[in-house]
Amino acid sequence: MLEAFSAAILRLQSLLGQKYLQRRVEKRPTTEHLIPNSEQLACGEVADEPKLSLEDLRLFALMSEAGGISAAERQYGLSKARLSRALSRLEGLAEGPLFDRVGRGLALTQAGHVLLPIAQDSLRAAREAETALNAAHGVPRGPLRIAASALSAQQLLAPVIAEFGHRYPAVETSIVVTGHGPDPLAENLDVVLRLGRPEEAHLVARRVLTSPLKLYVSALREKDVDLHDPEAVAGLGRILIDVPGSPRDWTLRNASGQVLKFQQPPLVQVGDPTVALGILRAGTGVVFLPELYGRARIGSNDFVEALPGYRGPDVEIYAAFPPRRASVPAVREFMNTLGEYVLRVGRGF
Q1: pTM tops 0.70, yes or no
Q2: Residues 82/83/86/88 CA torsion (nearest 10 deg)
């Protein structure tokens, strides 16, 4: 990857050098001896030679990822002035804008599209270097980027991060809340928690826990609905959580092998589990949740279990990360802390 990145930088520098020569010819058509040659450009002997900064390229890639200067400021904690200066320098080299303003955001111009792959290579190289340097240190430190659903972040990550932060205060942890199970390599994440094993063959996947799915309803309905009657429970309406790894049709079995199926059209379908829980808490519907999450809500008197003699299939929660990322101390110790927590709370699944 570094060889390809170096070749891309050389191509970009060559393009900038050609632009520079063109400007010099246009400005001084009769002074050929003043036009710098390639050696002068390479050695920096010309006073007004364009200066290409890898840091500017990195910041440009971050601005493109976030969707603009203000978004990059919020997402990455970078100052707006620093981002603006980097963009201004690159646009000076490109002799034109790299972004067009579209509504409240920014869209890449043609020049921006040409520059973006090289800038992304710069960002990836910087992050690989950061990973290698962090791995060289024995003590966890530096950034740790984790993605998870809102429900996993609340019920699983929150206590783990609290303990992890106390143990390793030099680690800067950020959590991306998402429902689609992103590719950590494509989105520059260290760890992604998701339902089910990821399909991407290039990722390392470790099973974090296994938990059966069970039915839960609002504690407000406990007295007016027979929670042992399948028809009464089905009549509450299904709240379908539409995330990867979550079944659309619900199948449950009891200890005697009797099977129940809930296949009626859902009352509502949501992509964020926390929205489903909000609807349920208000007294509407029934939801199919991993017992690890549902049991915590029973403990807080929000929910009660419906059809308690039945359980659905086991679901597996995996941690996925790019190759070699497990050697980074922060990632390694986060996984250890997560495993310790699961052992404490997950017994009985």
Answers
A1: no
A2: -110
- Residue % of the chain over a pLDDT of 70: 80
DSSP 135: H
Are 262 and 234 in contact by the 8 Å Cβ rule? The answer is yes
**DSSP, res 244:** T
Displacement of CA 286 from its chain's centroid (Å)? 29
For 44, the token pair is 């920096």
Question: Using CA atoms, how far apart are residues 81 and 83, in angstroms rounded to an integer?
Answer: 5
Instruction: From 157, 215, 217, select the one nearest 190 (Cα to Cα).
Output: 157
> Quick check: 158 and 151 in contact, CB under 8 A?
no
DSSP state, 154?
I
- Give exposure, 270-283, as e/b (b: 16+ Cβ within 10 Å): bebbbbbbebbeee
The owner of tokens 């990145």 is 5
Average pLDDT over residues 227-246: 91
pLDDT in tens, 128-171: 776 666 666 677 888 999 998 888 888 889 999 999 999 999 99
Inter-helix orientation angle 158-167/329-345, to 10°: 130
Q: What is the pLDDT of residues 314-333, one digit of tens each?
A: 989 999 988 878 888 899 99
